[in-house]
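[job 4471] stage=fold_predict status=RUNNING
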Amino acid sequence: MRAVLMAGGSGTRLRPLTCDLPKPMVPVLNHPIAEHILNLLRRHHVTEIIATLHYLPDVMRDYFQDGSDFGVQMTYAVEEDQPLGTAGCVKNIVELLDGTFLVISGDSITDFDLSAAIRFHRQKKSKATLVLTRVPNPIEFGVVITDENYRICRFLEKPSTSEIFSDTVNTGIYVLEPEVLEYLPANQETDFSKDLFPLLLARGEPMYGYVAEGYWCDVGHLDAYRDAQYDGLQRKVKLEFSCEERSPGLWVGQNTYIDQSAKIEPPVLIGSNCRIGARVQIDAGTVIGDNVTIGADADLKRPIIWNGAIIGEEVHLRACVIARGTRVDRRAHVLEGAVVGPLSTIGEEAQVSPGVRIWPSKRVEPGATLNINLIWGHTAQRNLFGQRGVSGLANIDITPEFAVKLGAAYGSTLKPGSHVAVSRDQRSISRMVSRSLIAGLMSVGVNVQNLEATAIPLARSIVPTLSIAGGIHVRVHPDRPDHILIEFFDHKGINISKAREKKIEGAYFKEDFRRAQIHEIGNVVYANQVVDIYGTCFEKHLNIEAIRHSSSRVVIDYAYAVSGAVLPQLLAKFGCDAVVLNASLTQTAPTAADRESLLTQLGHVVEALKATFGVQVSANGEQLILVDEAGNPIRGETLTALMVEVILSHHPRGTVVVPVHASSAVEQIAHRHDSRVIRTKANPTALMEACHTNPNVVLGGSGDMGFIFPQLHPGFDAMFCIAKLIEMLTIQERSLGHIRAELPRVTHKGCSVRCPWTAKGALMRHLVETHPVDRLELVDGVKIFNYHQDNWVLILPDAGEPLVHIYANSSDRSWVDETLRDYRLRVQEFVDENEQREEARSESGY
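[job 4471] inference complete, writing structure tokens
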């Protein structure tokens, strides 16, 4: 049997280790990852191997040559012009594949029983068999669900946190029949998980999942790289050592000298031709390559040291990576998680702080303390984007230098000379961050339309009129007044897709930005007539005559977050009396408690003025809370139901889009008006996309997120919502209190339970496996129905915090209370049991 070794990856998330080395050639226990894979294949009698190469192909060819030194026969296929993707590169060599063949990724460490997987494939008469495994945190991998016969029935490539429905994942190892490649076009970039497997599933081809026992680690980032080394030393994975095991857990290569005063705590691996000085302390988990010198009194606690490094006297290394040929001088400290690239120098008594990465051939001056990556910016994070964009503590996480780098990363994903709109709220911190973003965009040759201080609904509505590639909006986070939120949207004004977010993250983490020449630096222009353009569109989608004759009086509370608000000007133009409260900026954004106090005040004002209704606007014009004529607040699920009733009364047989956790009152109201309900994932982007792509949508959103009127623009807009309410109440001759009294009586409650990231996938799989399939809905999280469409409980993982949210819904209040208690207890017990298992595992580790 032949195997295809996919070895074309550049390993951007392992930078700086992969700046001059393809990821499959990164050493684990002093041998390239690819060599461990070849050893595994050889053990299972797979000796004809075709390696597909793209990034630095000569490195692998020079090392393995024809494969004879490794007991295999190697053939190489190089993607010369552009990468063809995981499936495209295999399609490119189809003429070499004349029977069942194995595909294996070149960047994983595993000891799976490949022979068993091949037997399983043949027994099932499968056309494509995916080798699966279970992992604690499946967010980085393709999640797979099989039926009782292991036939694949569903999978999702690299889900977001809230999309996790199993912890069984695709390992990138496949057993395939050549005919499946006939489904792929030639010379095009295609992917197994995104293109071929969904197509095979749709065509009903026999495709099975083999759940393998054993060890598997996708070496996709630096934490995983370190873990693979430590697991190999502890023999959690079967790997071959080329060094002699001098004593239990101590492997030492040839011609290596260890001073008798050195103290070594196994397991430790020391390569050939090394020199270990007097009184050196080497702790368990340390890996030392060939030709390494360790000076006297050095203290090594679990570092990974590549070939040819020189470690000076009294140096302290803490769970870091020291790459090829690097020199760490006397008394220097390289702390946990730091990575020093090849051929770099760390000066005497210098300190490299935790998590810092240093690119190849760089020098840290003696005595310096390095707190940031040497090339650019702060310590890299695994993910930039959360549920609603990029957020972090103002001027701590989201700093000017961070924003410059983020702007350059975003701009590098666009064509040179592209145009981007940048807008912000009125806070000084947002002005600072937006200017830094603009500098980053300009530095990579992107032009900027600066909308300055503009409410986000205005920004979204004007973007499609500017012929631009996309937009950025900066504001104080709606839910966390000490945080900044940076949102990116496309040329239509819709939040960018997950795929676009990943591209920006890739550019950010690679720190390899396009640099424009002087004459290519982007320009900044200031957009005029933003309010006029929005006002024209605003007016176009309202019944202005109804508003003029409404005699409405509306009290609008801006909660000290806006100065010079736009909406009162527009309403005054239509003859509507708008009383404005708190339309000025405080030094700091109001807290949730402040807003509650102001909401109570708003209720008193509405009653005293006998106003039609009141409204508190927040989130820079996106969200609102209503107050009825009696001063009672209307928010959350009640507000969602009320808006659906108001709009569908005027647009029967229309379609409304709501998040998966919205109450079933929405369906009951839609049934009254012969209308349709679409439920989406519980995030703003999903709501925007569904409103944009589905026909006849008249309303989208929820009381918590805000409301979308797709005919106006694709985003949430509290200002238009207020004007629309005035129009609808006038035409329908109803008050908010009257409408509220007619809403369906549904009890909808929620709670949040702590759940570590590593337990979320296992929890979702447990819930799927312990409930009948016909009672499950997996739009987002796991929704479980109780034999009645109005009775359900939803367990929804939080996208940004180690939490799961539990929602219960029914017309029976006691059922909701009992169900919420039951599932809260179930989740807590599962989390506790999972933590106990993890503690038991860690006791036998480091």
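[job 4471] summary: The radius of gyration is 30 Å.
[job 4471] exit 0
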